[in-house]
Design goal:
Number of domains: 2
Protein name: HU domain-containing protein
Shape: elongated
Distance between the termini: 52 Å
InterPro entries: HU-HIG
CATH superfamily of the largest domain: Winged helix-like DNA-binding domain superfamily/Winged helix DNA-binding domain
Pfam family, one: HU-HIG
Number of helices: 4
Radius of gyration: 26 Å
Helix content: 25-40%
Number of strands: 4
CATH class of the largest domain: Mainly Alpha
């Protein structure tokens, strides 16, 4: 098939005497195709198709119902937990949770990756939610 080789990099120096082992680090990986592999492929390689991930097609009411069921047995929910129970991808789950915070159904504790969502003031679901 071929072989891989590692490329090395170093910080720019004015004097070659300043080059030390500590200044050299890993750069890129290079791949050289063997002649046999090149002949077998005959210059044609088809890229493997990789499907894009999609969020689940659940309605807002169903997502909210699953959230309430989860919060009955747990004191809080994280974005990762919400993604797993609803099937939403990361950004969609965050948008959904932030919308619920904005509407007062949830409130947040913490920041960044340590943010958790707890029950808010109003618990009733409205038909226009999510």
């Amino acid at each position: 098939m071929g072989y891989f080789s590692a490329g090395l990099k170093g910080r720019p120096v004015m004097d070659p005497k300043e080059i030390h082992a500590q200044t050299i680090f890993f750069g890129k990986v290079h791949f050289r195709v063997s002649p046999d592999f090149r002949k077998r492929c005959a210059g044609f390689v088809e890229r493997a198709k990789y499907g894009f991930r999609k969020s689940a097609e659940l309605g807002g009411a169903e997502r909210y119902r699953r959230l309430l069921v989860f919060l009955e047995t747990h004191p809080f929910i994280t974005r990762k937990d919400y993604s797993s129970i609803t099937g939403l991808l990361k950004n969609k789950a965050l948008n959904d949770l932030n919308l619920l915070v904005e509407k007062g159904y949830l409130s947040t504790i913490g920041r960044g990756s340590h943010k958790v969502y707890v029950r808010g003031e109003s618990q009733e679901i409205k038909s226009e939610n999510a």
